[in-house]
Design a protein that fits this description.
alpha/beta; 15 strands
């Protein structure tokens, strides 16, 4: 039976084009060198629309360096096609999940198939988690699912990008903090990526911090557009609603389905995992100052997604850690480019999960750089 694979890239993994130009001007790309039109990405409160009335931003092709090799490896080893689901990563994962649902139905009819493998990279895992929620318990179309470096509970890096405007989620096109803030603060996706795991953000005096309370945020963050800020905070609160969250709780999926799920996370890199909220900034101009550089602000992770966020399902779904090697460049962004990751994924998709001849688990490699994240 033919089982194609759907690949869902992460944030910034898809080029964005202004289709209201004669040459489909590339507005975002990892190798973009012309940034005079970067403000075309600015969104209104109604995120369906850009601020610039002449801009109509749509997806282009995915980033070659991040995904070309994994596509070729999968198609060669599984003998099945890979379909790439590129998307506008500025938008909410909920909206993108609805587009993914339409894409899956389209492929079902086009290919006359009933099942798919899914591989989701980074924020693509949030899209996939939101899509799984829309299935309402019917997982007949799901064969294997692989989440790769997914920030299930967000990342400090997203908060940094909204606050400081630099470092963030690796936006190399911005040449100043001010430029980045104004653009990133209009993206629903970046707010959805803010950290929600326990003790990610805490007040210096030990009081509870509520990331969904705008009064708890650094006081100057809404300066650009207070109405926009309140709108995006409200959206984020709805996205993570405790009674009806947008992303499915993977523990609620039946065990026989979860047994076909795999989570891969990066480890061995110092990763921001905590923010201390101080009463004011050193210069006294800002209240609720976000200190990203406290003594205990770093832990393990892949450099972008902390252990605390990537490992939340380790007791329920097979979760493997891939250790960064000194030769790895941009470990998180190029995670699927790693040969160990590619081998682990192909074995899992091909059900090559028997122990090695020496009794070691199927995922092990000679240098022990692929390890099981222990159950607690």
């Amino acid at each position: 039976m033919s089982i194609p694979t759907i690949l869902i890239p992460g944030i910034q993994g898809t080029k964005l084009l202004n289709t209201n130009t004669l040459d489909f001007d590339t507005i975002w790309s990892m190798i973009q060198s012309r940034y005079e039109t970067i403000y075309d990405l600015l969104l209104k409160q109604d995120s369906r629309f850009e601020v610039n009335p002449k801009s109509i931003i749509e997806r282009g092709d995915v980033e070659d360096v991040a995904y070309r090799e994994i596509v070729h490896v999968l198609e060669r080893k599984t003998k099945q096609p890979v379909y790439i689901f590129g998307y506008d990563w500025r938008q909410s994962s909920l909206d993108t999940a609805k587009r993914l649902a339409n894409f899956v139905e389209y492929l079902k009819e086009k290919l006359s198939v009933k099942k798919f493998n899914f591989i989701a990279h980074s924020m693509g895992g949030m899209v996939l988690g939101s899509y799984l929620k829309t299935l309402q318990g019917n997982y007949d179309s799901i064969e294997h699912v692989i989440f790769a470096v997914t920030p299930f509970r967000g990342s400090i890096q997203a908060l940094i990008s909204l606050t400081m405007g630099e470092g963030g989620i690796r936006y190399p096109m911005f040449n100043s903090s001010d430029e980045f803030r104004k653009i990133a603060r209009t993206f629903p996706s970046v707010f959805e990526l803010c950290p929600t795991y326990q003790n990610a953000v805490i007040f210096e005096d030990g009081a509870n911090f509520n990331i969904f309370n705008p009064d708890h945020w650094q006081s100057n963050i809404g300066d650009d557009d207070w109405g926009m800020f309140l709108n995006r905070i409200s959206h984020m609160k709805a996205f993570y609603d405790r009674q009806n969250p947008t992303m499915i709780n993977l523990r609620e999926i039946p065990l026989e389905v979860r047994n076909r799920f795999l989570i891969l996370m990066g480890i061995g890199v110092k990763t921001k995992n905590k923010v201390i909220v101080q009463p004011e900034s050193p210069d006294g101009r800002v209240k609720n100052f976000f200190n990203f550089d406290s003594i205990d602000s770093e832990g393990d992770g892949d450099g972008v997604v902390p252990f605390e966020s990537a490992s939340i399902y380790k007791n329920d779904i097979l979760t493997l850690g891939i250790k960064k090697k000194w030769t790895d460049f941009s470990f998180h962004a190029l995670f699927l480019h790693d040969g160990r990751v590619q081998s682990t994924i192909t074995r899992f998709l091909l059900n090559q999960t028997s122990e090695h001849f020496n009794g070691s688990p199927w995922w092990t490699v000679v240098d022990d750089s692929v390890t099981l994240i222990p159950i607690e």
